[in-house]
């Protein structure tokens, strides 16, 4: 698994749409949508029925992070109307929480089947593969490397686990400059099939597609998988929960 600066070379290209933010009152806030129940298909932002993304939780809002308590976000990707497609990943993150030296790190792993134990300690039953770790030093506000994943097939979806965590140390727990910080993140997935006739998404290729919801982003793309680069966004907040321990 490696990264490349191109978006599914020769078959898809685009730019990330804007991010969403969430502002809440200071102090510990209950996790919105905290219960992990099942992957839910997210509304398509391009031509429907090609690359299908699902999310657990959905909407993905992590509003009660604290040192030592990570948040887990599962994103599934599958294809319809094609037998095989390449798949690649991009990341976006911005805000005070992701820029703080002890702030948010994003760890991305992939599994061939759905993850178990998202409420406590996620496990990949078939063995996980590490894709990348994005630390506060990585500036992904407007761009990131592109990470190539295993190809998708109609019978073999893939499941990403994004672990969201801040530094777990006595210094972080005592660091008042962390408290109340917020941030945003998004993942973008590009799928490009080679066994379909290339289709141009409605409205033309390239450019930014309209934002279709508080937790969805899209990249306009021209490719065989028609608007193949989709993304899901999330909002998160560092809480004061450690003060209650």
Automatic annotation (TrEMBL):
Highest taxon listed in the record's lineage: Bacteria
InterPro entries according to UniProt: LPXTG_anchor (IPR019931)
Keyword Signal on entry: yes
Keyword field: Cell wall, Peptidoglycan-anchor, Secreted, Signal
NCBIfam families the UniProt entry points to: LPXTG_anchor (TIGR01167)
Protein name: Uncharacterized protein
Taxonomic lineage of the native organism: Bacteria, Bacillati, Actinomycetota, Actinomycetes, Micrococcales
């Amino acid at each position: 698994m490696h990264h490349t600066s191109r978006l599914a070379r020769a078959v898809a290209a685009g730019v990330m749409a804007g991010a969403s933010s969430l502002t809440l009152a200071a102090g510990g806030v209950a996790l919105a949508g905290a219960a992990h129940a099942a992957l839910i298909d997210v509304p398509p932002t391009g031509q429907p029925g090609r690359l299908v993304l699902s999310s657990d939780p959905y909407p993905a809002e992590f509003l009660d992070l604290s040192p030592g308590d990570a948040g887990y976000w599962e994103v599934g990707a599958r294809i319809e109307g094609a037998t095989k497609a390449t798949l690649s990943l991009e990341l976006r993150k911005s805000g005070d929480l992701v820029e703080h030296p002890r702030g948010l790190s994003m760890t991305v792993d992939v599994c061939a089947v759905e993850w178990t134990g998202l409420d406590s300690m996620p496990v990949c039953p078939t063995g996980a593969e590490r894709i990348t770790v994005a630390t506060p030093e990585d500036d992904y506000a407007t761009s990131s490397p592109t990470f190539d994943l295993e190809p998708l097939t109609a019978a073999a979806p893939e499941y990403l686990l994004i672990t969201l965590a801040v530094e777990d140390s006595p210094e972080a727990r005592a660091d008042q400059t962390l408290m109340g910080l917020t941030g945003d993140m998004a993942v973008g997935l590009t799928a490009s099939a080679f066994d379909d006739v290339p289709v141009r998404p409605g409205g033309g290729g390239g450019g930014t597609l309209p934002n279709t919801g508080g937790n969805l982003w899209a990249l306009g793309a021209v490719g065989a998988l028609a608007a193949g680069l989709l993304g899901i966004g999330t909002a998160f907040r560092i809480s004061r929960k450690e003060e209650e321990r």
